[in-house]
Write a structure and sequence with these properties.
Radius of gyration: 30 Å
Number of helices: 9
Order of helices and strands: HHEEEEEEEEHHHEEEEEEEEEEEHHHH
CATH class of the largest domain: Alpha Beta
Largest sheet: 13 strands, antiparallel
Helix content: 25-40%
CATH architecture of the largest domain: Super Roll
Number of strands: 19
Length: 452
């Protein structure tokens, strides 16, 4: 969940760099400029992380410190035919755009789609107008006050024909709850104009909306494509599978490269009076054979980020050497086991106020057929194999339901030990030092004190 927040920070960071690059003039060589920009970016990302973390500690965070929203936003002159009259609006500026609240974020990983909902308490539009008809003309300043403005935007990524991940389309719509207008010096045309407005109250707003939508489309598309180009470079992706499945394939490769498949478990030793059990040389194979079962969704509502994913594995197998002792007697043997598949559904939430901890809200397990082959216990081998191969397979759904609660509780206890704020800051610091966004799974598990 903390990685989700880091990812959102990086998206915002790319937007800031785009705005700043448009105003910076570099006089050094191209190589020096590129190096300086990279070094400056590393410094800014740490400051960006700190600023956002502090910002979302507020009860009602308005805007985002690092996002440079033009306020006021200047719009070009607009002409609108009103039937009996023609309205021209000039020197139009929209105020209050920086006072936005992000009310919802939904990321559909399968569709590579981002849905964003933003509201403004109010937006004020000021400018000059000229209203003319066949028999009269009026001009002067005007003010339009929009309240409860809601902006809904959707951005979709896709792999183009060259194999590059880029923005496919962006759609946006703006609505409002209430509007009031003040056109001064209307004179004789006042009653005519008021009648037109009463029949079509969205008239003035609809005249300005196309430019605002086009402006957001251009800026957002440029920012997203710049971020993707910086992070992916010339890396080509297959267009036959979704980007998220490509990312999961890269994660499988990383798991193998990090030495987690096969995975070696620590030795297990338990002594209860005269009875003792020792498990050694335990290996699990196939942990990197995971894939997406359902969808992966990321959301943000009420200043709380959420993540829900469904992953499954192919067959997982393993082996261990065991030793069982009773008083002065002991037996040594070997066990091989396999699980047809394991599917996990997890949902967790992290308040954007990172002083609070991650909370696991849902955990569902689906375990496939289990097979065990034991050697070393003599006749007891058959009893053990029967006990494991038959009973758990008959009752595995009841067993999974029974262990989901305790496992979820244990997972929550582990996540309660994570200081989300410090985790994100450490991640940003490591990025400054290395220039790479890497996640050390081994160190993470060690910090959790996760013992098996």
């Amino acid at each position: 969940m903390s990685l989700l927040i880091i990812w959102l920070v990086c998206l915002l960071h790319a937007d800031v760099l785009l705005a700043q690059d448009a105003n910076d003039t570099l006089e050094s060589s191209a190589d020096d400029a590129e190096h300086a920009a990279a070094e400056a970016g590393k410094v800014r990302i740490a400051a960006t992380v700190a600023a956002i973390l502090e910002h979302y500690k507020q009860a009602d965070p308005v805007g985002i410190p690092i996002v440079q929203v033009p306020d006021p936003l200047e719009t070009p002159d607009m002409d609108k035919s009103l039937g009996m009259a023609n309205l021209k609006m000039m020197q139009v500026k929209a105020y209050g755009l920086s006072k936005f609240r992000i009310v919802s974020v939904e990321v559909d990983a399968k569709l590579a789609q981002l849905n964003l909902g933003v509201n403004l308490d109010e937006m004020v539009v000021r400018g000059n107008y000229q209203l003319s008809s066949f028999f009269s003309k009026a001009n002067g300043p005007f003010t339009v006050l929009l309240k409860k403005v809601f902006v809904k935007a959707t951005a979709t990524l896709a792999v183009d024909s060259q194999g590059h991940l880029a923005t496919d389309r962006i759609t946006m719509d703006m609505t409002f709850g209430d509007m009031s207008m003040d056109f001064q010096n209307l004179g004789f045309l006042g009653s005519v104009f008021q009648g037109i407005i009463n029949s079509s109250p969205h008239l003035v707003f609809d005249s300005m909306k196309p430019f605002m939508v086009q402006k957001v489309d251009q800026d957002a598309r440029a920012a997203i494509d710049k971020m993707l180009d910086e992070k992916l470079g010339d890396r080509r992706l297959p267009n036959s599978i979704t980007p998220v499945d490509t990312a999961i394939a890269m994660m499988r490769k990383m798991v193998r490269e990090k030495g987690f498949d096969p995975y070696h478990l620590s030795n297990f030793n338990r002594t209860m009076g005269a009875f003792s059990v020792h498990l050694t040389n335990t290996w699990i194979y196939g942990v990197s054979n995971f894939y997406r079962v359902g969808n992966i969704t990321v959301s943000m509502f009420n200043n709380t980020a959420g993540l829900r994913f469904q992953l499954g594995t192919q067959q997982i197998s393993g082996s261990t050497q065991w030793e069982v002792g009773v008083a002065l007697m002991s037996r040594i043997g070997h066990v091989q086991f396999s699980v047809q598949h394991l599917r996990v559904t997890v949902e967790a939430h992290q308040p954007l106020d990172t002083r609070q901890r991650i909370k696991i809200t849902d955990l569902q397990l689906d375990l496939g057929n289990i097979q065990v082959r034991s050697d070393g216990a003599g006749t007891l081998d058959y009893v053990m194999e029967f006990g494991v191969n038959v009973l758990p397979n008959l009752l595995r759904y009841q067993i999974m339901d029974a262990i989901e609660g305790p496992l979820m509780q244990r997972g929550q206890e582990l996540f309660n030990n994570i200081d989300s704020e410090q985790f994100i800051k450490d991640f940003a610091q490591k990025y400054e030092e290395t220039g790479k966004m890497e996640f050390d799974v081994g160190a993470f598990m060690k910090d959790l004190k996760f013992d098996i």
